[in-house]
Amino acid sequence: MCLPPKLKIFLWLIIQGKLLTNTERMKRRLTSDNSCPICHTHSESLLHLLRDCPRVNKIWQEINCFDNIRRAMQIDWAKWLAANGYCTMKCYGGMNWNVLFTFTCWYIWKWRNKNIFEEGFQFPINPVKVIMDSVTEWYLAQGKKNTRTDQTTVALKWLKPGNGWVKLNVDGARANLNGKIGAGRVLRDQDGNWIHGFTAHIGQGQVLEAETWGMLLGLQMAANLGMDKVVVECDSEVLVSLMNNGVDDLHPLKTVINFCLHLQSSFSECVISHVFQEVNTVADGLSRCNLSAEIGAIYFEQPPPQVTNIVLDDLCEVLKYRKVATAIG
């Protein structure tokens, strides 16, 4: 599904059930009132917030254009979410329904928060038009109607940082069978020499959590070693977007990301950028090599055997190849 990065994060939060509705906030003892801040008559569960609240339900009645999606308004939360999320049928001149569905949920959440936190906020007179205009703008920006995609092969290699800089590569991994997550990080100097490395088995969770903890622990390592100018590379577009563009106050990883941002500000210069996985393989290898051990961390002053060959490949600037999409008008 092609979505803006912030909506990808939002959709992930919905799927994981991690949006902080008042029902969730009450479970965590963050509030004593679990009522819906829009209708004030029902408890604010995810299903109520995104579908069953009377004001929200009117939006769905107007925007729904498929009989099977209308019928899904009567089923339970998980089935409703799946029915909409997997629906790729075209509507309104070529939009994918699941894209329109995600945008609609995003605006419902956005307006809900504005209603709470912005004094004098008024819901749009025509909310469906606001949503449709936003989706149309996104499709136009992506060139969905007038371009096709092709693939080309590009050569990639790990690049040494500039003079006076160090490079920090971070990554996270998750074992699908048991949900264990790990983080890896490696710090190298301007000549590509190993300064310090680390692998950690964090516990159980999701990939984004592992990657975020990898970022935090990596920045801590660089700060503790007295580094001044740091280039940070990560192969998670979502995490890089959160670091560079900000994070919603209600995001479950906000506290960890805020610590990352605080550490980032402690360096004289610190640049965080996205790279393809092919040039982040040392950190990737480190993130996986401790998943079978007890929860904890292992530090490396020299490359461990699991990544020695990869480190040598990076030093020798060995090329790796990846197919990437290219737009053709």
Report on the architecture of this protein.
This protein has 329 residues and is an alpha+beta fold. It folds into 2 domains: 5-146, no CATH class; 166-328, Nucleotidyltransferase, domain 5, CATH 3.30.420. The chain is built from 13 helices and 10 strands. A 6-stranded mixed β-sheet has the order 8-7-4-5-6-9. A two-stranded antiparallel sheet has the order 1-2. This is Putative ribonuclease H-like domain, reverse transcriptase zinc-binding domain-containing protein.
Protein topology:
Elements: H1 5-16, H2 22-27, H3 46-52, H4 54-63, H5 67-71, H6 77-85, E1 90-91, E2 95-96, H7 97-117, H8 127-142, E3 148-156, E4 166-174, E5 180-188, E6 194-204, H9 207-224, E7 229-234, H10 237-245, H11 254-264, E8 269-274, H12 281-288, E9 296-300, H13 308-315, E10 320-328
Parallel strand pairs: 4-7, 7-8
Antiparallel strand pairs: 1-2, 3-10, 4-5, 5-6, 6-9
Helix pairs in contact: 1-10, 3-4, 7-8, 9-11
Q: What are the key terms here?
A:
329 residues; alpha+beta; Nucleotidyltransferase, domain 5; 2 domains; 6-stranded mixed β-sheet; two-stranded antiparallel sheet; 13 helices; 10 strands; 21% strand; elongated; nucleotidyltransferase
